[in-house]
């Protein structure tokens, strides 16, 4: 069944667990996350980025997720991740998304407020939940790309932002980072900042850039030809602590990509004569599913559907 994020995140925030938002780009990824949700009896957020829409098509992605939602006995939402303009968000609302994120973190505070409020005023009458972001995550998508400097979320500004916009959830910057190459040194999340934000903000809080980049996946990928040396993510104990400090939604993308890539490389290396896409992509789907199931157990959402 398709629900909006508010229906999933408010109970999570109150009961001290988090719901995973898993990015998909194709059918295999959707099957991986939906099957994992059923097996773990967990609520789930299926997230789609503008780049995924460009790759696979808005109508295709929205319809396969709606089909999945009709066939699984757990609550599922269809969420736009990192929508950066009103037009993209509006198209996703029109396509049946039940939750949207408007990312104005690159704007000045007042401009972010204005854009977010415009989205809230458009989406709420249609029953669609809205997530926004205040602060900016660092991120290194490729080793050759210069690292972007993070701007951590100010607790007082967060309180004012939520009051002025009426958003349903707020993504905060407390030290996480996008991509597989998250940190030059050891990760350090600002839990005191997160505690202060939680005290001042009543809506559910969201953690982006939270993939743990498991070393066993990196080792498998490298074994079969990938160049991923130096990739590192957020330790699982930090994720658990962040949840205890009020995080109710956690975004996962990189770990799924790594599991997919490592397994495809393994299959092709071990079976060089294989040319059946199902026998190549099937194991990759299963690898992604196991990653998702592990995240649900880590987040505490297993058994909460």
Write structural notes for this entry.
- With 305 residues, the protein is an alpha/beta fold.
- It contains twelve helices and ten strands.
- The chain has an eight-stranded parallel beta barrel with strand order 1-2-3-4-5-7-9-10, surrounded by ten helices. A two-stranded parallel sheet has the order 6-8.
- Helix 2 crosses helix 12, helix 7 (155-165) runs parallel beside helix 8 and helix 11 (254-270) packs antiparallel against helix 12 (277-299).
- The longest helix is centred in the last third of the chain and has 23 residues, at 277-299.
- The chain is globular and about 60 Å long.
- It starts with a helix and ends in a 6-residue tail after the last helix.
- The relative contact order is 0.16.
- The model is unreliable at 140-147 (pLDDT under 50).
Short description:
By secondary structure, the protein is α/β, with parallel strands linked by helices. It contains 12 helices and 10 strands.
Main structural class: alpha/beta
- Taking all Cα atoms into account, the compactness measure Rg is 18 Å
Report the sheet with the most strands, covering strand number, pairing sense and barrel closure.
Answer: 8 strands, parallel, barrel
Unreliably modeled segments: 140-147
Query: Strand share of the residues?
Result: 5-15%
Q: Report the principal-axis shape.
A: globular
Number of continuous helical runs: 12
Total beta strands: 10
Gap between N and C termini, in Å?
11 Å
**In which order are the strands of the major sheet placed?**
1-2-3-4-5-7-9-10
Instruction: Tell me, rounded to a whole number, the average pLDDT.
Output: 92
Order of helices and strands: HEHEHHEHEHEEHEEHEHHEHH
Could you estimate the helical fraction of the residues in percent?
A: 40-55%
């Amino acid at each position: 069944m398709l629900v909006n994020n508010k229906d999933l995140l408010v109970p999570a925030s109150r009961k001290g667990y988090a719901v995973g938002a898993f990015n998909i780009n194709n059918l295999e990824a959707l099957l991986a996350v939906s099957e994992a949700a059923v097996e773990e009896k967990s609520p789930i957020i299926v997230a789609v980025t503008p780049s995924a829409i460009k790759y696979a098509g808005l109508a295709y992605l929205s319809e396969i997720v709606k089909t999945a939602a009709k066939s699984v006995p757990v609550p599922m939402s269809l969420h736009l991740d990192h929508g950066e303009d009103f037009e993209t968000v509006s198209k996703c609302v029109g396509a049946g998304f039940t939750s949207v994120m408007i990312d104005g973190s690159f704007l000045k505070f007042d401009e972010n407020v204005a854009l977010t409020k415009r989205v809230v005023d458009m989406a709420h009458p249609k029953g669609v939940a809205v997530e926004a972001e205040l602060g900016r995550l660092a991120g290194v998508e490729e080793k050759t790309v210069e690292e972007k400097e993070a701007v951590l979320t100010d607790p007082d500004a967060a309180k004012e932002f939520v009051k002025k916009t009426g958003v349903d959830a707020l993504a905060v910057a407390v030290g996480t980072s996008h991509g597989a190459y998250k940190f030059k040194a050891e990760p350090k999340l600002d839990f005191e900042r997160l505690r202060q934000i939680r005290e001042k903000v009543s809506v559910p809080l969201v953690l982006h850039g939270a993939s743990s980049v498991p070393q066993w996946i990196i080792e498998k990928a490298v074994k079969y030809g990938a160049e991923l040396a130096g990739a590192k993510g957020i330790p699982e104990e930090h994720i658990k602590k962040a949840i205890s400090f009020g995080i109710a939604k956690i975004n996962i993308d990189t770990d799924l990509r790594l599991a997919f890539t490592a397994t495809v490389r393994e299959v092709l290396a071990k079976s060089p004569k294989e040319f059946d896409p199902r026998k190549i992509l099937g194991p990759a789907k299963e690898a992604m599913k196991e990653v998702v199931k592990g995240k649900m157990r880590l987040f505490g959402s297993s058994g909460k559907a």
